[in-house]
Amino acid sequence: MSLNIDEQYDKIYRYCFLRVHHKETAEDLTQETFLRYLEHPHYNSIDKTLQLLYTIAGNLCTDEFRKAKTSELDESETSDENIENNVLSGFDLKQALHKLSNEDREIILLRYVNEVPVNVIAKLLNISRFALNRRINRILSSLREYMGKEELI
């Protein structure tokens, strides 16, 4: 099964953008992700391809975060707000998402913003699909509680 690079490029870019909060850095990380992916053409299954892309992107974002942290490059509050306004709707949801752990927030963003299939996310986290579904339900319950709403996603 072949991979539609254009379709996946936007998803990987959004993923990187949400993690690094800087447009140019996210573009660079996305390009680097696909360059590294192309070095591993033996991944033929779409599930494995998506898993590899998100693994590479996640690792690159983590490396970038470490570099930024060690060089003490502070991002401005304004750019964070602009990113959130472009990606997520609703002030309450943004506040609720920030109350989640980084891993829980990443799961929600992968699943509902990037529409990554549950089985791919489960493989990335090395847990079963069922465990991931339970975790997603728990996260959504927490978001509902934070927002004080009955209906969410």
From TrEMBL:
Name the UniProt record assigns to this protein: Uncharacterized protein
Recorded superkingdom: Bacteria
Keywords recorded for this protein, A-Z: DNA-binding, Sigma factor, Transcription, Transcription regulation
Ranges of residues in domain RNA polymerase sigma-70 region: 9-69
PANTHER family linked to this entry: RNA POLYMERASE ECF-TYPE SIGMA FACTO, RNA POLYMERASE SIGMA FACTOR HI_1459-RELATED
Domain RNA polymerase sigma factor 70 region 4 type: 93-141
Lineage: Bacteria, Bacillati, Bacillota, Clostridia, Eubacteriales
InterPro entries xref list: RNA_pol_sigma-70-like, RNA_pol_sigma-70_dom, RNA_pol_sigma70_r2, RNA_pol_sigma70_r4_t2, RNA_pol_sigma_r2, RNA_pol_sigma_r3/r4-like, WH-like_DNA-bd_sf
